[in-house]
Amino acid sequence: MSTLTIAQIEEALDVTCDTVIRNEKYFSDLDGLAGDGDFGTSLATGFKVIKADLPGIDKSAIGAMLLKISMICSKHVGGSSGPIWGTGFMRAGMVSKGLTEIGHQQLTDMVGSALEGIMARGGAVRGDKTLLDALIPIHEKLQEMDGSDLGVVLAAVAQVADQAIDETRGLIAHRGRASQVGARSANTPDPGIVGIATILCDWCKHYGVDYTPQAAELNH
Ligand SMILES: [Mg+2]
To answer: Where do the domains of the chain lie?
Structure first.
């Protein structure tokens, strides 16, 4: 890629809001298979505030915008997702502090810092069947790529997240409410991983990037 501007990142965030709001019931239904069924509502409650506030948010820098998004997540996203998503946006905002555009290396560093923060905040590791099982391989994929074509990058990370749904489906959750039901969490998708994959697939659609989702939850 060449660069991503603050306006482009704002647009991607707005598309993300639409995705989360549209999938409120579906994401909660998925969470209800093994968890407490609140994931979709928790996330949508916060992203409705982001959608409404986004036009007026401080856009002096990407970091300033993301730190504001982080604060909205911490305050308005319910359940365990609030601190997780809030931390992710905060760490991405710290890396992009003062910048009005970013290149591939900065994007990669933002994702890397976000997932490190989420691991530190929530105590989860790879294989615990959380959204980290999407974010960690996404970060690895970004590190492998040169970023010269943004569409190629987007299709590649969408595929990684898509694959993470089926690769983790058989795992037993070790974090969150789903961990309390033990084996019953096996053979259910992790809603956080489905959420990340759905957002990336919707970005593909919005930006006209050709990608055909494979997991059933992306074709429901
Ligand atoms: Mg839940």
So the answer is: 4-218
Q: How far is CA 100 from CA 4, 22, 136, 194, in A?
A: 9, 29, 26, 30
pTM of the model: 0.96
- Contact status, residue 70 vs residue 90, Cβ threshold 8 Å: yes
> Which CATH superfamily is 4-218 part of?
DhaL domain (1.25.40.340)
Ligand 1 centroid distance, CA of 103 (Å) = 35
In order along its 220 residues, the chain shows pLDDT tens digits of 579 999 999 999 999 999 999 999 999 999 999 889 999 999 999 999 999 999 999 999 999 999 999 999 999 999 999 999 999 999 999 999 999 999 999 999 999 999 999 999 999 999 999 999 999 999 999 999 999 999 999 999 999 999 999 999 999 887 766 677 777 778 899 999 999 999 999 999 999 999 999 999 999 8
What's the gap in Å between 66 CA and the centre of ligand 1? 24
Q: Catalogue the E-assigned strands of 11-129.
A: 101-102
